[in-house]
Amino acid sequence: MKITQVICQILRIPNITAKTASSQDSVLVRIRTDDGLEGVGEADSSPEVVKAIIDAPFSHNIACGLRQLLIGENPLENERLWEKMYRRTMYFGRKAVGITAMAAVDMALWDLKGKAFGQPIHRLLGGKHHNKIRGYASILFGRDGKETGDIARKWVAAGYSAVKFGWEPMGSSEAVDIDLIKGAREGLGNATLLIDAGCVYDARTALRRAHAFAEYKPEWFEEPLREDDIEGYVWLRDRSPIPIAAGEGECGRESFRPFIDRRALDVYQVDLSRCGFTDAAYIRSRVEEIGARLCNHCYTSPLTVAASIHWLSTCRDAFVFEDCVEDSPLRNDLTIEKMQSVNGWMEVPDRPGLGVTLDEKFVQKYLVAESK
User: For all residues of the chain together, what is the average pLDDT?
Assistant: First the structure.
């Protein structure tokens, strides 16, 4: 079996709005072989930048586009191919968008491998610990506490027992922040509250907010600091009355390594569309070694949802699953199979590979660029 095609497609919905929601566009990687199999992957990054990394021609031995590195290779040798891509793109940067492009390729290779062996990816990763995981509705804050409370009631009524609110307008002021969290708690009742600050505080301000938020009993306080403030996270985690979560922006094992080595977090959030299965499996082992908890990050399409549930099901202590509930066609309709929690629970698919099938009519409707 050999790789014959690496196709990169960019999809985008009309009327993208200025909000922190990566379900408005997508970059797909489709890897095809000489025996007719296809694997599909996705990256959560700027689609055009990822496409440029895949399409780039050879420059020199450590600056080469991914397609050229993959054509003619055996797709089942995914770990060797990860190492090849990592070595031959060294000058692309080791912890950023080059890794997200590799993650999309890696996801497609694992999908293809599962189809080749007729096995779901979770089995190829070593086996699942969970048949289903409690989903939490992941959504942005409302404009104020009242609107946030109304959003909370909507998703509790839809069957979710946990809801996460994130990003703007959090960080505007202490009064705004507390109003948002108070409104969320009132709307949720006894359901689990998760807070995503969106990287808006310094460490001392974050600690003050953690103490102010504690009375509302959140399960975690996510990304209160900028993503690369490792020392700040270590300091905050040692003092916060609320568990500290982060990791969604980290790309691959080298990006996660200092957080794990310093035991900087209580919950490590791994995005399969930025890490791929190969590095996510490594990160899982390291985090489980230090006794911390793992969760997925996912705010894109059903492809990453499927990848995330395969991986998270193999995590021994998995306890919640991030389920983006943005009302976006890309989030809901890219695949024929629906990948959404049912009555608040996300089922783990047992179909080969990722277990989802692209809706080709949908792809053509929203396609804005393609490489072959």
Answer: 96
